[in-house]
Amino acid sequence: MTKPQIVIIGAGFGGLAAAIDLRGVDADVTVIDKRNHHLFQPLLYQVATAGLSPADIAVPVRSVLRGHPNARVLMDEVTAVDLTGRQVITATRRVPYDYLIVAPGAGASYFGHDTWAGHAPGLKSIDDATAIRSRILAAFEQAEMAASETDRARLMTFVLVGAGPTGVEMAGAIAELAKRALARDFRAIDPNATRVVLVEGGPAVLPGFPGGLAAYTKRSLERMGVEVRCDTSVTEVTADGVTVGETDIPAATVIWCAGVRAVDVGGWLGVETERQGRVAVGADLSLPSQPNVFVIGDAAHAEMPDGKPFPGLASVAKQQGQFVARLLRARLGGDTGSLSFRYRDLGTLATIGRSSAVAVFGRVMLRGWLAWVVWSLAHIYLLISFRNRLLVFVQWVWAYLTFGRGARLITGPTQKQRTG
Amino acid sequence: MTKPQIVIIGAGFGGLAAAIDLRGVDADVTVIDKRNHHLFQPLLYQVATAGLSPADIAVPVRSVLRGHPNARVLMDEVTAVDLTGRQVITATRRVPYDYLIVAPGAGASYFGHDTWAGHAPGLKSIDDATAIRSRILAAFEQAEMAASETDRARLMTFVLVGAGPTGVEMAGAIAELAKRALARDFRAIDPNATRVVLVEGGPAVLPGFPGGLAAYTKRSLERMGVEVRCDTSVTEVTADGVTVGETDIPAATVIWCAGVRAVDVGGWLGVETERQGRVAVGADLSLPSQPNVFVIGDAAHAEMPDGKPFPGLASVAKQQGQFVARLLRARLGGDTGSLSFRYRDLGTLATIGRSSAVAVFGRVMLRGWLAWVVWSLAHIYLLISFRNRLLVFVQWVWAYLTFGRGARLITGPTQKQRTG
After folding, report:
1. Secondary-structure class of domain A5-34+76-108+260-332 per CATH
2. How high is the ipTM of this complex?
């Protein structure tokens, strides 16, 4: 008799946690991801701002599952799921499953303005991060050679759309990059004159954080020279910059840190999704009427006890993956009882800049240097492989002492930005 | 009175050495490079084989020249030189010079078979290295999913064309990657079955090294499982592999480590070049009849006392840059005496694999572990910035202890390799 087949789509926080926790079960586990690496997304902004190298925050999925003889990894792109025939369909093969865990994550959402994508890239993959890094650094290079003050100002203006953790972190990191790492490297421009604008549609930065910490974050960013504009919606994005309300902000670099939208999981499964592309699942994270198919992470719309959906956090995805692994272990052991996913809030953190962060642990709120130390330690701890932890630590200590940025490389296809 | 203008084209070993040694002269120094970073090319093969990250072997040119107030850096692409008007011409500007140092380096040469370039990429830039890394790693991923044994064998065959230091280093590194770092990561394939073929047109590997060391290198590679084929010319390269003589070697990955050809410096200057695109220069490295224009490094054909051209080594380029800087210092000081470039041979090294290398220092020859230690220390020392040295050291120690490879990332546009 062949063993039960468990297929996991996606090796992000949710999918990988499930695969890890399925070690040793009496089933074959297949992980399918279009990339060969698991990405520690919370630190992606550091790659985009030249603080870390891609390999510092990514690890091959195969390496993680090396010691799991019942697990195999396929680098392939899912195109559909045949729920009736119980098969996952990719461009080149069909992979049969008895249990399916769908965890493909989310991409940037431009709220219907898909033409904005080319002018305002989002930050979801390593290629996104290195492309944004090249754009940011090339903007300074071109400003150094700019023919007019108007051009120079536009090239030295950076707009972040969306003031969630990524927008806040990017704004702080670009301000520090300009004012610290680049400060003495140019002759024709003064990187201190860099303009960083953080635009947020809602009334405050860091939606979801307590008001006091949001206000602290705004003040901290402003002290670093970042212009924070809340209650401000972007109405147009072009190669020349953004329009907010009636105001044009000329900017060579616009980075999209706003909406996310689940990867096309509704299309794969042939089910309805809500506005953000997420698929509704039950308390055990399974699809209605498909008790063997689970959707977790950013692709899932699971409801908290208060009726709101779980937030799109790495820790939610990870715990959901662990939950489904536990549930499948029980099922494989013959236990058909029902389980409900419960989220254990281990805290939420966001960093603002050097020595500055905010953190919420239940009723405990931290800010400033202490929060930053907690943030640093937590992120080093969370990075999966020891090698990454060690290297990231060395680089952080080095960057902290020197204000330097080690990965200031412009790579990839030369993108001539518009000059004049 | 405006200061004399010294323009340097290229921030490789030669150009950067000249710029560094022109610190403090009473002249304005402008360095023009199409990239923003100086690249430590001798370790590029380690990026291509997932041992190091790009940022470990590259440093922004601006950072290097930060403390040189008389130096500025332009990231721009040279299209021509107006020798009569004394201007360097780029796509967007004209840069006047009084003294010009041309040091643009070399690229891969396919000996007239330019269609081979797409199938057999060369290894000259960071983008080359990350693209080759993606190709190598993706070949194993596709082999894991291959439909037939024929496909699998083709995907697991790697051909290196040219057995100079780069070819030898790549062959050794791919063999070690497969047999060590990847050994336990796959389920359907055995990475130990990887076939690495090193093809060399000449009679021995490492042309230019003493025969004894070449023979030792060949034996070492063969012990590592590399097939070394000397006296063998490649007659065809396609998406399916290479043809050597009458034999087809089916291979999904072919890497070009053979000829180099100077960047189009003859075209810029409007002068004749020899077969490898190099421009003949006099004993003081200046162009005949252009005493203020110097060509150095891989773009220059300067003759050694025995009438042979200087080899295309980093140390030659670096010493030539230092020589021209010294000559210009003398000229700016009013000394019009003539100087002749002399090369001081500090030794030649090539690494074969873990704990194995060859080295020549004058009459002293080293091989094996001791040569490898010397090679490691020399390369760590030579890496320009301390941060790079420290990180590379940490990673090497780690890799040595664990056999692991830290940078196994497949990034960039997904290149679907031909499967069947």
Report:
1. alpha beta
2. 0.89
